[in-house]
Write a structure and sequence with these properties.
This protein is of the alpha/beta class. The protein has one domain: SGNH hydrolase (Rossmann fold, 3-Layer(aba) Sandwich). The chain has 8 helices and 9 strands. Strands 2, 3, 4, 6, 7, 8 and 9 form a 7-stranded mixed beta sheet that branches. Strand 8, helix 7 and strand 9 form a beta-alpha-beta unit. The protein starts with 5 loop residues before the first helix and ends with a helix.
Length: about 240
């Protein structure tokens, strides 16, 4: 009989990887109420230990308040997270580092075909990579509108929360980047108003005000405090919507 490594057992009890088996097939579509799709690029995906996603901090706050929900998405976070109240972090998401609004628009239909229609979509830093790559602002806005159209096509009753995105670190905020972020901050409010229907609410959430360099791990990604900042703002909206 092989000896049992007690230290390893204790490690596995306290920390559990979200993707222990790399060949695990995609899970069936969720039957939960309040299916939440975290949609975006690297600020959704995360990149531990270099930088953090807000998803873990948001998941903890929702669980702490005994809310019923399920994170969904075709992606699975392979990082390791501490258990919370004896619960294992829900690692499903739809974040892909470096992807632009056009990339997301092109693939979103196929993703939603796999996951099924979400009840809530948290649309992170819309067109953030478009801004960093100097792509067309007009096209980015067209893409963002198209992304919302696809979500509402899959679920006409979906609630979509779209960020007025947090800025990058101040020393890389060129005049072009600043203008892009300032303009989209205004246009996100207009988009939310124009895309809201009698059944599907589109809500702009301010991730910009109060955000500063101390919340960043590098030029654009969150450190732990930044992840908590973003999670708090999502939670303040979701706590009433999920109830």
């Amino acid at each position: 009989m092989k000896k049992i490594n007690l230290s390893m057992i204790m490690f596995l009890i306290i920390f559990l990887s979200c993707n222990e088996e790399g060949d695990t097939p995609p899970k069936p579509q969720s039957n939960s109420i309040n299916k939440i799709l975290n949609l975006g690029a690297s600020r959704v995906e995360g990149g531990k230990p270099e930088y953090e996603s807000y998803r873990y901090e948001l998941w903890k706050k929702l669980k702490e308040n005994n809310l019923i929900f399920d994170f969904v998405g075709t992606q699975t976070d392979e990082s390791t997270y501490p258990q919370f109240n004896n619960m294992i972090f829900d690692c499903d998401h739809e974040g892909r580092g470096g992807w632009t609004s056009g990339d997301i628009l092109e693939e979103l239909y196929s993703w939603l075909s796999l996951t099924g229609p979400p009840d809530f979509v948290l649309f992170s830093s819309p067109a953030g990579n478009d801004a960093l790559e100097g792509l067309s602002y007009t096209q980015a806005i067209t893409n963002v509108n198209g992304i919302i159209d696809i979500i509402q096509e899959f679920n006409p009753n979906a609630t979509i929360i779209i960020e007025q995105m947090a800025p990058a670190r101040s020393d890389i905020m060129t005049s072009e980047l600043t203008n892009f972020l300032e303009q989209i901050k205004k246009d996100v409010v207009t988009i939310a108003e124009s895309k809201t229907t009698s059944k599907s609410e589109v809500i702009a959430v301010d991730m910009y005000s109060g955000f500063n360099d101390s919340l960043l791990a590098d030029d654009v990604h969150y450190n732990q405090d930044g992840a908590k900042f973003i999670a708090e703002r999502y939670f303040d909206l979701l706590v009433s919507l999920l109830e």
